[in-house]
Amino acid sequence: MFQRLFGRERRANRAITDALYGQIVAAARQETFYSDWQVPDTPLGRFEMLSLVMLLFQHRLRGEGGPAREVAQVLIDEFFTDVEHSLRELGISDPGVPKRMKRLAKMFYGRTAAYSDALDQADAGALAAALARNVRPDTAEWAQATDLAAYAFRVEKELAAQPVADICAGRMAFPAASQGGGDAA
């Protein structure tokens, strides 16, 4: 699927990457997160939400082989390219970008481990605690962490119901956060 570098296949692969990444970004930028659930609408707050949604996408494709594995890798590469581009837009100088990218990659993979463990164990409390620790470290109590955890479990369930072939073809949908938190496990 993603092996051809030239011709129609390359354009089709770019279209699939753009479609999937566009869905991931749109899911991470839902107004409910920032207005109702008090995720900081800052570059770091947006990184936290994009990281969460990217993790949920990667979690869906985990263990899949063939094209799904390739799609997962291409999307993680796209994510880090986007993060680097965002740093440059924020005015970070060329010498400062690698240092910040290293720090953000470490943050992403640390969150991936914590969130994946909670998802795998269907532990809504652990996921809410990890989200609170990472998304709102500025506050001792963040009540909306339970809403965000419930949403993450709902996304996990809805993505699991979507055929891998559809996802690899660029057809994927995330639920709206405004539809309620849903059941956490």
What can you tell me about this protein's structure?
This protein is mainly alpha-helical and 185 residues long. It is built from 8 helices and no strands.
Overview in brief:
With 185 residues, this protein is an all-alpha fold.
Order of H and E elements: HHHHHHHH
Poorly predicted runs? 1-6, 181-185
The amount of beta strand, in percent, is under 5%
Report the total helices.
8
Overall 3D geometry? globular
Family: Belongs to the UPF0174 family. Belongs to the CBP3 family.
Organism: Ollibium composti
Pfam families: Ubiq_cyt_C_chap (PF03981)
Protein name: Ubiquinol-cytochrome C chaperone
Task: Give the key terms.
185 residues, mainly alpha, 8 helices, 0% strand, disordered N terminus
Helices and strands in order, then pairings?
Layout (H helix, E strand, L loop, with lengths): L7 H21 L2 H5 L7 H19 L5 H23 L6 H25 L3 H12 L9 H16 L3 H5 L17
